[in-house]
Write a structure and sequence with these properties.
It contains 8 helices and 46 strands. It has about 700 residues and is mainly beta. Strands 2, 5, 8, 9, 11, 13, 14, 15, 16, 17, 18 and 19 form a 12-stranded antiparallel sheet that branches. An 8-stranded antiparallel sheet has the order 12-23-22-26-27-28-25-24. Strands 1, 3, 4, 6, 7 and 10 form a 6-stranded mixed sheet that branches. Mean pLDDT is about 90; it is low at about 1-30 and about 190-200.
Length: about 700
Amino acid sequence: MQRYCQPTILFLLLLANVVAAGSSVAQERSVLPSQRNATVQELDAVAMERLPAVDMAALRAEDQAQRDRIGPYRYGKTIDTNFSPARHGTWEQLPSGDWLWRLRIQSRDAVSLSLGFTRFQLPPESVLYLHGPGETVVRGPYTAADATAGEHWTPLIRGEKIILELEVPAHHRSEIDLYIGTVVHGYRARPSRQKNGRPKAGACHLDVACDEADPWREQIQSVARYSFESDGTTFFCSGALVNNTAENKTPYFLTAEHCISSPEEATTMVFYWNYQNRTCRALGSSENATETSDDATDQTSSGAMLRARSGNWHETGQIAGEPDLALVEIDDQIPDSYDLYFSGWSRAGAATSESTTIHHPSADGKRISFDEDPSTIAGYGQTSEGDTHLRIGNWELGTTQVGSSGGPLFNADQRIVGVLSGGLAGCASESPSDDNNEPDWFGRIAPGFQKGDYQGTTLADVLDPENTGTESLDGLPQTEQVDFTAPAPVREFRIRQVNTRDPSVTLEWTATGDDDRIGTAFRYDLRYDTTRIQSAADFAEATPVANPPLPAPAGQPETVVIDPSDGLQSDRSYYFAVVAEDDAGNRSPLVSSQRRAILVQDIEIEAGGVAAGLNSISETRFVLNETQTLRVALYDLLGRRVRVLLDEEVREGFERIVRFQTGSLASGPYFLRFTGEQFAATRKIVVVN
């Protein structure tokens, strides 16, 4: 059965090319057997297996022809192989007596490679590693415990070459039953621009690092993207870890049945956790339309077992008529260091008053979308008829795309009520920062608690193992130490001093804490811009200060000097803003300076003007380039002093305003006389009453 099918209604999920991005946070590297033993042969001497060419042009043409068909996002072509340590590769005995087997595999022009071991049986204490040329990224060690139904599928490695290293204890070499039956040739990489230089579709997505996502920090930790193989092709979809009434942290993962519809497909699943941009990119910006800088393969799990299913795809290749649900159990012990979350759910069955979805559009970094209006219960592709899905009319913030399939839909109580089947949502072509105001359909989990079509098992059988009849269940952190409390905003943030000659700006504030106002934050994100920084989008576009101070304990004063080494320039004016972050990545609300620092080289006094109308007010702005005592007085045409408007020390680099009411003055010309310690200047004011 083909993975794509022609639906009864045309659903256009905007396509974008994807494959995992380069690393921004390096994975903790394992030490390879070849690195620990200086006696091994050079890599060039290891046997190389070259795979037959992949017709990538034909694959892309198929993708183009199927661009208006629903389904998960295709990124790779599987190549059948028959590689095994018994017949391929290079064996060497190490000084310890252990054996080392290595094999190089090349698939020309591949964007990425990954492996499917269709037999995976290793002797005790044997370990397997995978890496690319140069050993920049190492996958493993994998042991016999990593097998799922006798198989093992690996995370991808970028590039057209992959190297395997298997270390086997002495006298156990004959016990190996390892068979590489599949190599996945990843053929799609995501360009960041269209040919005309404009951002590709996807710039209206909202990063989960943005302030709007702060109330959803726990639920964000439950969502992952995953790859899987079906009928010779590999795909990406989204899904979420879910809690069960026993609250025993069994790694149940909820997604769409049109993604995972058989136990064989579940076996091939590879999960990529916490793949998300670490900063909030501005909606509509070219940066927001590019891949995240995070490492998609930094935290992974492999293999799953299908536990429950409620859908039509496995029989008809259609979604309509069933809620499109699949529940798997991940066959890997997920490290506590991943700090994941088991989301809660509700099977009450009501439509949502407002909705949120978290997902991986185009299999890229994790995003979040918000609908502020009530959803409606309907059939797939319908407006009101049917009851298998929840229809989202349009997203107020964010959107969905191919690869978002299977992503969870949360109600206002932050519990999962559905998973994404498909729709028309995407970014508007005429406005990169806006979605296209089209609907999406999410399969309701409520029917899945009543009916299942995989071995007769329902969601209730798996997620309510104690048969409590619970309608709504809260979520559960993977570890009790998971920190979701963000630092409070810093207090008393202000520009203390401006030095126009260096130039430099001194900022000060009162430190916040790690949890609200308790403890010590992990770091500051301090930024500046020539325009006011009032929103998360403004902050994302501002320039970061390279070396902000380390946070002091809560309540302590903080001071920092920003100078040309941070990018400041003379004859510019700057606004500043700061965000505090704890060691769990939680970020405080934005705090910005209301005043600006003006790095003038010469004194600037606004030109005079006309003050017209009864009780009008004359205002004149000025900035000094040196702190000094300044007197500003108003004189009439005959040189008589009318009044003194200012007589005090004025600090350099700050804009000041001299203002006076004109209602008591006769019409005619007047003069403002500015007299400082080192200068004098006059501005003419005309009063018309």
